[in-house]
Amino acid sequence: MADRITLTKSDRMSVALRSTFLQGSWNYERMQNGGWCYAMIPAIKRLYKTEEDRIAALKRHLEFFNTHPYVASPILGVTLALEEEKANGATVEDSAINGVKVGMMGPIAGVGDPVFWFTVRPILGALGASLAMTGNILGPILFFVLWNIIRFGFMWYTQEFGYKVGTEITKDLSGGLLGKITKGASILGMFVLGALVDRWVSVSFTPVVSKVTLAEGAYIDWASITGDAAGIQNAITQYASGLALTPEKVTTLQDNLNTLIPGFAGLILTLICCKLLKKNVSPIMIIVALFVIGIVFHVIGLM
Amino acid sequence: MSVVSMILVIIVAFLAGMEGILDEFQFHQPLVACTLIGLVTGNLTAGIILGGTLQMMALGWANIGAAVAPDAALASVASAIILVLSGQGVKGVSTAIAVAIPLAVAGLFLTMICRTLAVPMVHFMDAAAEKGNMKAIEFWQLAAIAMQGLRIAIPAACLLVIPSEVVANFLNSMPAWLTDGMAIGGGMVVAVGYAMVINMMATAEVWPFFAIGFCLAAVSDLTLIALGAIGISIALVYLKLSEAAASGGGVGNGGTGDPLGDILDDYE
Q1: Which of A155, A272, B16, B40 has an alpha carbon within 20 to 30 A of B220's alpha carbon?
Q2: Cβ of B68 and A261 within 8 Å?
Q3: pTM for this one?
Q4: Which of A119, A70, A287 is nearest to B201 (CA)?
Q5: Contact A201 B196 (CB under 8 A)
Q6: What is the pLDDT of residues B189-234, one digit of tens each?
Q7: Judging by beta carbons within 10 Å of its beta carbon (0-12, 13-18, 19+), is residue A237 exposed, middle or buried?
């Protein structure tokens, strides 16, 4: 078959670049259909020369579609392979093409969400944010550059992979690999979330639980400290040797909670949020409520 | 603020709005959007710190199915503009965030309007497909994206034309108990984003990893990179061991012979 029409590498690259806009016309009726069709246009132009073939192809690719925007790439790859077969005279029914699209989008979206939204983004985001909170410009730069390298690398190579293996990919991905990636991402994601909850959910109770008057000699006797540099040095030395700053040992509720494990209150708060969300309480409601609680508790001196 | 800065802010807002739906380059993430607005208005450091702080809250906000999270794009852009107009620099970060979160919630309404308006747009695409008019399909796709950009650019422009004294006076007139209380609330709001993510991923099998992560994070010597490395190692070890256990168990490793069915089972 000398006159076989094939998609060139630049056709495939332009499909990959256009798939960046996959969600641009996201709508309540057919979700990502417009973006999908938009991405397929370079391939349709290459493969079909007659007006009616092109119309049929355009309509075929305006059907309902919705998945995670990055894992759409392997599905695009497979679809490109199928369309190429069809354009070269193989009997590939429209329903087969849509069947592959719809069949792949569900399970494969189940990979995209935990991997990208719940593992890579929180990790890179937390890394960037923790640098940024100290005013370091590297934070945002690191986040932006690493994210986009990972994203476009993933999109291009999985699309190529899909294109090469064609229909085989469906079998392959629904085999062990898909399950493993998802599980690995969930494990890493949960681990990181645990760490983030500990480090970044800040709940601090201020009520004083106990005030114990310390024995003389257990605290710094400020009357004997002189106001010059030597005095400051003396005070710091005493503090470093374990003497308390005040004659009374003040224990707040927070100190008590922290002896259980640091961040305990934040953990409880997070678990309560999980419960509420499971009961279909809107996250927006919870956020508003937390602000109200913050203000009220602060005013009554609890936080 | 100079006219050039204003135009640049609106461009950043437009990019953030586009990305709020596309979710590709991440211009709508606070870390990027706040930094860019800080950069174009000459408040780079304050912008970076604001971005980092807001990013921590927004880590779990994601566009998944029907789940609603506050609009990160509007939160980032609005809080950055408010911070710049208030002229308080780094000090104003927590107040700017407290003001921006209600706006982010309001932003959801704009998102819904845009997603509804996109329905007639894809009908125009249908009509164009009927005629084989690819240019028109491309036009409507790009028009839809531009509409999403305007969703954030227009509110940003509105915030910009409010005189900065009004913003500053408004922020200064807020009593300390209110701003402090909102800052405390802001510290807790982070939990909601994490809870959303946890609910998506949690199964009995992976809860222990959450506990390990939580306890290890209390060791303040461990940086996030170190924690990440530990997490990856644990995940790899676990996968390897469960694989070994499955093959060692011989027949009946839980598979039903229907790979897709097994995966669906795993999602329950």
Answers
A1: A272
A2: no
A3: 0.76
A4: A119
A5: no
A6: 878 878 877 887 788 888 999 999 999 988 888 877 788 889 889 9
A7: exposed
